[in-house]
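Please check both lines for our workbook:

___
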Amino acid sequence: KQNLQRPEELNKKQHHTELFNSDYLIVRRGQEFQVKITFNRPYNPATDKFAVEFVIGSSPQFSKGTYIPVFTAKERPSPWEGRVTDTADNTVTMGITPVADCIVGKYQMFVAVVTPVGIRRTRRDNSRDLYILFNPWVSADAVFLDDEKERQECVMTEMGIIYHGAYDDVAERDWNYGQFNYGVLDACLYIMDRSDMPIINRGDPIRVTRKASAMLNSRDDEGVLVGNWSGDYTYGVAPTSWTGSTDILLSYANSKMPVCYAQCWVYAAVFNTFLRCLGIPSRVVTNFYSAHDNDGNLKTDIILDENGRVDRGRTRDSIWNYHCWNECYMSRPDLPTGFGGWQIVDATPQETSDGMYRCGPASVKAIKHGQICFPFDAAFVFAEVNSDVVFYSRNKDGTMEPVKVNRTHIGRMVVTKTPGDVTRRDITDQYKFPEGSTEERTILEKAEEYGCQREKSNPPVADVDLVLPTLEISRGDDFELSLEFINRSTQHRTVEAYISGSVAYYTGVTSYEFLFRNPTVKIGPNQSVKESMMVEFKNYVKHLVEQANLHFIATGKVKETGQIVTTMKVITLHNPKLTVTVSDGGKVNEEMTATVEFTNPFTFSLEGVYIRMEGPGIMLPKSKYYSLIPGSSSLTWTEFFTPQRAGRSRVIASLDCSAVRQVYGQASVTIEP
């Protein structure tokens, strides 16, 4: 008779799994864990023969690594190392080391004893199941990351900050990754089951991340999240309303149906939870001015008519104000030496790769060095950060001629959260060499040799500059927009200008033009002239779409020289804030309160309002619905919660309705043990 006692808390501590809210043993591969076995009499190593057996999947086979017997006797070699570390009375403690490239997932454990009448095996008992995860702490594992601060952030941290807005006015979105919450690990394994991924591939981080990048979107495989950029979220949760990944993953695992709705940061955030949960170091990265180019070249084409006005019907490529993807850390034995480390994976369905909506893993170093042929999808990512914006003038006969090339607009800044801090870290230099450096030119030429088409022509630069100011504007403000015309020549210049202001989605798609002017501006030699316009809230309020971006583009033609001048600016309107307060004196397992307060700053009522609140390690997701919040009235919502663990955390809250999206607030909390 044997009963397998729960292995001590020691395993969890040594394997960095103590934060998982689970009753099962969770260990990491390539590292020893202890199992205690109690027999019905003392163990005699000379005569007693037994094995601890591990089984994964529905048809375990020794040859496939899905049935692993671990012996104590040296004469029977085991794929996984086993040794007796302690014996006391009828109890044997055994140390077992899964190989560093074993399958990641949930195993069943048995003990088999050789008796005179054959082999006797313990009965199937769910409580003895264990999970084996990737191990970034062990050098033999493909995901080994030799930097403790980075590991603490990219594997162990549940509190995230995702950057959005505009590159010169960056906004933050707090997110609870919740990778250690109850049920999340099972949900992540369910995603792999659902994808029909062969169990023997599940120890390879390249295959796991590539499969997951397809499985996190619902296009073509009933994956986790349904994308929706339309502005109508009647049949689901608005992307801007989510505060964390827990609800999304548990809902998918329970309903077995894709969850509505996501946009890029939601895909990236839930993917991040999946990666951190399984033990693959990962982070969410934001690229400001991300090219989404529809015809596979390194150009984002903006087409102007013969007068210099943007031809919206013919301009197909879009520039996303920002785009979020993930980086995960792993070796790349399939690539030449030096291209391991951070890899880009992107679950937002933009382009199909090998017939599926997925992207990556693509080596960040390969992107920086222009090795765009390396698998997987390096060319697509290279274009997202390196495209040129090319303005074409369309002549009356339909021919197109490049009139201006902007080589610095796209991939303006790439950022992620600083490890161990709540500040942001600029990692643009990991993706590209400094603008205008000789290395940068060499890299772009190399990419061209591999078949990326770039704009060859260098149209002469006009001697008139247009400048739009950087403005910080709150929703509800009227403001003055002044466009400056600077004449750098020694002669008079006349510009026939087109100034357009539209409401735009963060994907660069415009929905409504609320401002259009076409002044003719005369500028003396070496002079500058400002053309000012009042922009009134009432003119654009009815047309605002969720992320409240105003997109200004000014173009024009210099009468004297025929040259084209252009400038673009994205202004992200600042939304009202939620105030979140937390009661004093936080202690583990002692009840606390969190209060969300909001005042509707507008004259109109807000209808169909959802408020959500959660906090990493301290509060599971909660939500509340208000059918109406009248203009200038206030609401207060208080919830009780009981923190599960000590340390620093945040309570994150969001308010969302069709009239105003992305209203956020947070409170920092320190919980004493």
Remarks:
- The longest helix spans residues 264-278.
